[in-house]
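> example.struct
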């Protein structure tokens, strides 16, 4: 929701009570991430992806929603994590988040810069040719899908978070015999109460997903930050109401 006011039907069933002691703090700001991005990363990326304890996980595209999958994976004690992007700031942010997320501080993380198109080769080398148990597609372009196809292990799962605006090919001629599974969809929302508790208990560093705070009166600037994310090192832009 981006506006000074909103009408929320049946609000008693879809809103969460925030403790007064965190009002007007960074914790309250972090809780905004529970409204969409954190449950999307957890539910569509991990739970719909049939996540189990001790799996290897690859996240293709570590923009905000990819990072949300990363920091919500700690509860599942992954064996190792791979993050793939061409944006150095986002790869560095992945490393930083690992050090402050419960359940991930001791997990090996492979941050792979795909600027030269070497991601598939690097992942397959690091996994001795086996591939990854769960691959989360969080970039929304055909190239991201093709990386996922090439690094998912036999019997593994590809979970799609990315919003695709162009066609991409599922290469069944070489994928059908690998017994892989594929899921995609929109956020459900059933994990929001649990995620709120984790943020309040400092188990998930959700505040670090917020890179910029912009007053509502300068909302056009916020869209420029988001449209030129690489230039401005933008993750999530928090709009602050200065109009009422």
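> example.seq
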């Amino acid at each position: 929701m981006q506006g000074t006011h909103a009408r929320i039907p049946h609000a008693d069933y879809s809103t969460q009570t925030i403790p007064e002691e965190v009002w007007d703090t960074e914790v309250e700001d972090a809780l905004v991430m529970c409204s969409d991005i954190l449950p999307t990363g957890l539910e569509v990326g991990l739970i719909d992806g049939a996540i189990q304890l001790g799996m290897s996980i690859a996240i293709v595209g570590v923009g905000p929603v990819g990072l949300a999958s990363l920091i919500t994976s700690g509860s599942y004690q992954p064996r190792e994590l791979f993050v793939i992007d061409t944006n150095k700031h986002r790869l560095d942010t992945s490393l930083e988040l690992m050090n402050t997320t419960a359940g991930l501080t001791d997990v090996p993380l492979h941050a792979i810069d795909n600027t030269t198109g070497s991601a598939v080769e690097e992942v397959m080398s690091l996994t001795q040719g086996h591939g990854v148990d769960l691959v989360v597609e969080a970039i929304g372009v055909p190239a991201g899908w093709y990386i996922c196809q090439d690094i998912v292990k036999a019997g593994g799962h590809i979970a799609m978070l990315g919003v695709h605006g162009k066609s991409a090919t599922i290469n069944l001629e070489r994928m059908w015999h690998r017994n892989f599974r594929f899921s995609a969809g929109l956020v459900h929302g059933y994990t929001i109460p649990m995620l709120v508790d984790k943020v309040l208990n400092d188990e998930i560093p959700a505040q670090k997903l917020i890179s910029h705070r912009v007053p509502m009166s300068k909302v056009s600037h916020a869209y420029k930050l988001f449209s030129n994310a690489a230039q401005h090192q933008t993750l999530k832009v928090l709009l602050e109401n200065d109009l009422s």
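> remarks
The chain is about 35% helix and 20% strand.
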